[in-house]
Amino acid sequence: xxxxxxxDNAATTKTAPEVxxxxxxxxxxxxxxxxxxxxxxxxxxxxxxxxxxxxxxxLGAQAKEIYFTAGGSEADNWALKAVAESYASKGNxxxxxxxxxxxxxxxxEYLERKxxxxxxxxxxxxxxxxxxxxxxxxxxxxxxxxxxxxxxxIGTLQPIKxxxxxxxxxxxxxxxxxxxxxxxxxISVDDCHIDMLSASGHKLxxxxxxGFLYIRSGVKIRSxxxxxxxxxxxxxxxxxxxxxxxxxxxxxxxxxTMEARAGKETELRDHLIRRVLxxxxxxxxxxxxxxxxxxxxNFSFRFVEGESLLIMLDMKGICASSGSACTSGSLDPSHVLxxxxxxxxxxxxxxxxxxxEETTREDIDYTVDCLKGIVKNLREMSPLYEDFLKKETAxxxxxxx
Length: 401
Hints:
By secondary structure, this protein is α/β, with parallel strands linked by helices. The protein has 13 helices and 12 strands.
């Protein structure tokens, strides 16, 4: 394939060259186990500590509040399961939303089977949590509120600060899945009253298989993985030193480029949205038109199957998705799109395009030009579209009489 336009950066990003360069020595020359006592390994222990401080500084946190994990899903599991176990004596009720990543939703379902009660909040048509509904859902037995910072499918940003204030007022722990937001937009754990936060390296031009969980000092949760004394006895297992180096380097890099990158991506995103909505009829933008990630655009095309759309885009050298990469093998429509009120047949025709730092205006224009032809061809093969056009023609004829 001669042409490759990668517009699936919400699924994963290309590891930046300087991140790879920073990691390489820790595979070969500096390969010591940080838990060993001799000087050769102590250098790696210090290197891990430096990255912990770098990540903490970005969030306005303390280094001792950052715990490295194998990724965002592990961090989400840890936050929910450990709080449920540690605070069970105070209550058994958890509040989350219907549009969370499956790392949260499936963990919540697991906890329900263990006897915990979970409230799944509705969202509005743009995917935003209704604060009044959140307040109504709170019970004396509520021990945790978990709401994602930014949705991985439709890009909508939640009112995290307001949610954090509500949680703080009621003495409830607040966790946010910030896998899509960390490194993309500024985050302060103190300003937003966040008690726990999950993030992942490979969403911000870092390596896969590394992430972290921020746990505010004073939050009493137990070990998630038992074994050695790593991560201050809360997460056993030899540290993934190259991954940690990569995560810290990528995080610092993301902060340095954030303002310029967000400006460029927002401009290209809005150009993409404008062209698609103006040039392809019977199309809907999913998610909030403004309160969304700078690089995210999610559309629904009526009378089109999302899977066919992806295959034909791939043939044009365009990488895209219909939603979360973690559910790409599922034939069911996106739970996020159903939650914002789309009917099944419309949700099936969804397309997520997520830009990256290397995306150009030419890439966007080529993609839209290809989309126009693909959607047109797919609709021409759709009996539903044919019936729709007949009905529309009949209605126009009747209106002239």
